[in-house]
Specification:
By secondary structure, the chain is mainly α. The chain has 6 helices and 5 strands.
Length: 174
């Protein structure tokens, strides 16, 4: 586990080195826990942040993915409280349904209402996590022509970008 944490932090340092920290927060997201993935346990996310926060030039926050939490065996009725107890914060909720059953470790998102997560549980997660949000505003998209990402970070960023685009198109029309 320690070797995996260090490799992940090295990738973060490499990927964020050229990024201007002005107004950008790097978000760590819980994983579904399949295979040897790091980040399905909240303590692992906290450890990643603790190691990385002094090595990257960006503030580090947390994203709670409802599919990942469900697939990772976290009860959605108490997950917001547990995340805050371990990490101290939730900066974003990636709210989506799960194609697979509870505690399978399968990272398979599906549209809200067409999976295994009860809609009321999803609403409760969003409501509980949003309790601390102040002055919400849409994110302004800027272009950075000087950013270059290399190495292992490329695949992770491509996966993240694909998920963000999918969710923007399905759940957040302009």
């Amino acid at each position: 586990l320690e070797q995996g944490l260090l490799a992940f932090v090295e990738g973060l340092v490499e990927a964020t080195g050229p990024v201007d920290p002005g107004g950008v927060t790097l978000l760590l997201e819980c994983t579904a826990g399949s295979g040897n993935a790091i980040g399905s346990r909240l303590e692992e996310l906290h450890a990643l942040r603790e190691v990385a926060q002094n090595l990257v030039n960006l503030p580090i926050g947390f994203c709670l993915d409802t599919c990942h939490a469900h697939a990772g065996g976290n009860d959605l009725g108490s997950v917001v409280e547990k995340v805050r107890a371990v990490t101290g914060r939730i900066d974003l909720v990636h709210c989506n349904d799960s194609r697979d059953a509870f505690d399978t470790g399968a990272d398979r998102h599906t549209n809200l209402g067409s999976g295994h997560i009860d809609g009321a549980d999803l609403a409760d997660v969003v409501r509980a996590a949003a309790a601390e949000v102040e002055d919400y505003r849409r994110v302004e998209v800027l272009v950075n022509d000087h950013l270059e990402v290399t190495g292992r970070a490329v695949a992770d960023l491509a996966h993240l970008l694909a998920e963000l685009i999918e969710n923007a198109l399905v759940f957040s029309p302009p």
